[in-house]
UniProtKB/TrEMBL annotation:
A Pfam family assignment: FdtA
Listed name of the protein: FdtA/QdtA family cupin domain-containing protein
Gene3D superfamilies: Jelly Rolls (2.60.120.10)
InterPro entries: QdtA_cupin_dom, RmlC-like_jellyroll, RmlC_Cupin_sf
Record-annotated Sugar 3,4-ketoisomerase QdtA cupin domain positions: 5-129
Amino acid sequence: MGKPAIIDLKHLNVNQGNITIAEDCEHLPFKLNRVYWLTDISKGQVRGNNASLVGQRVIACVHGHVTVTLEDVSGNHYRYELSDPHHGLYIPNLHWTKIKFMESSILICLASNRFQESDYIRSYQEFLALPRN
């Protein structure tokens, strides 16, 4: 299990604006298998409230601002503010994740695996019951 970290995503400044790039293994700590995004989330709403058993993610706030709180199985807590679309937050597996939307925001998620419900822990009590390191 790795530690969460801010990742600088490759971006290019061009005459018409900016282009941000995320390519397998060059900019991400895993092979990219899935991309999804969250939109139209009300200010103050919290999403996530889950952990992945094996899946890893990099999330980036491409518009607006979100606060991300993470907890690992050892009980360490991390807090990140995301508002720069050129920075992604690497979330390793086995990290309880809560994402609070602070304004009209768009969050993109780059995931290491395809969706499988069996990979998700959706009960915080179940997460706390996992063996501690």
